[in-house]
């Protein structure tokens, strides 16, 4: 795994100098601090494989949560102050307790205010990938700041680079719910759509 996951066509104006790009399966790239690669295994050819646990700034963690919630049939997210609450509807113990609720995980920011999704699998930027298009560059430029105003640009980027492609209005609705929830989650059925004004 390369130590530098910065695409060759991205300047520090688009990606912070201490960050690289990572993605989950069928998800867009997001900027993160990568830290030191950790050895995982050696394959049959003798090649060593490493893993990273990316650390995301708050605004990027918000978009990771929005993207995953829009494409998952069992994961939901809520914010409780600075903590990110992950609700997994598939992690019920129906065999032992049919009335059990979903699994709830609380992700605290670390001392630097960064968020880690420690049990998730992340891929670093593939240097063989095509150069990033204008929408991607614009979205990453906004994500490089902590004062994200151009929401529609990031929503366009997520919708165009996620499989299955989420509906842009769904992304707006999820973002609106995340932004307006200030208390710990009440574990209920999925929320109905809420109209969010566009930020662009």
Secondary structure layout plus pairing:
Layout: E1 20-23, E2 30-32, E3 38-42, E4 48-51, H1 58-71, E5 75-80, E6 83-88, E7 103-107, E8 123-124, H2 134-143, H3 151-160, H4 168-180
Antiparallel strand pairs: 1-2, 1-8, 3-4, 5-6, 6-7
Helix tally equals 4
Q: Classify the secondary structure makeup into a structural class.
A: alpha+beta
Largest sheet: 3 strands, antiparallel
- Give the overall shape: globular
Helix content: 10-25%
C-alpha end-to-end distance: 38 Å
Cα gyration radius (Å): 18 Å
Low confidence ranges: 182-200
Report the mean per-residue pLDDT as an integer.
80
The ordered H/E elements are: EEEEHEEEEHHH
A few lines on this structure:
The protein has 200 residues and is of the alpha+beta class.
Q: Key features?
A:
4 helices; 3-stranded antiparallel beta sheet; disordered C terminus; about 25% helix; 8 strands
Describe it.
The chain is α+β, with helices and mostly antiparallel strands. Strands 2-1-8 form a 3-stranded antiparallel beta sheet. It has a 3-stranded antiparallel beta sheet with strand order 5-6-7. It starts with 19 loop residues before the first strand and ends in a 20-residue tail after the last helix. Strand 3 (38-42) and strand 4 form a beta hairpin. Helix 1 (58-71) packs across helix 4 and helix 2 crosses helix 3 (151-160). The protein has one domain (20-180). The protein is built from 4 helices and 8 strands, in the order E-E-E-E-H-E-E-E-E-H-H-H. The chain is 24% helix and 18% strand.
């Amino acid at each position: 795994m390369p130590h530098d996951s910065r695409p060759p066509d991205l300047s520090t104006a688009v990606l912070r100098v201490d960050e690289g790009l990572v993605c989950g399966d069928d998800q867009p790239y997001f900027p993160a601090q990568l830290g030191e690669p950790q050895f995982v295994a050696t394959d049959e050819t003798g090649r060593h494989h490493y893993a990273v646990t990316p650390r995301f700034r708050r605004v990027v963690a918000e978009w990771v949560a929005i993207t995953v919630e829009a494409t998952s049939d069992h994961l939901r997210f809520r914010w409780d102050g600075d903590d990110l609450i992950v609700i997994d509807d598939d992690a019920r113990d129906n065999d032992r307790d049919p009335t059990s609720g979903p699994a709830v995980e609380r992700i605290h920011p670390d001392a630097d205010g960064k968020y880690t999704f420690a049990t998730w699998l992340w891929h670093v930027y593939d240097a063989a990938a095509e150069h990033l298009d204008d929408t991607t560059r614009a979205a990453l430029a906004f994500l490089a700041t902590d004062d994200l105003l151009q929401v529609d640009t990031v929503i366009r980027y997520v919708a165009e680079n996620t499989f299955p492609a989420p509906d842009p209005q769904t992304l707006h609705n999820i973002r609106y719910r995340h932004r307006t929830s200030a208390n710990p989650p009440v574990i209920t059925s999925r929320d109905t759509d809420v109209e969010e004004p566009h930020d662009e």
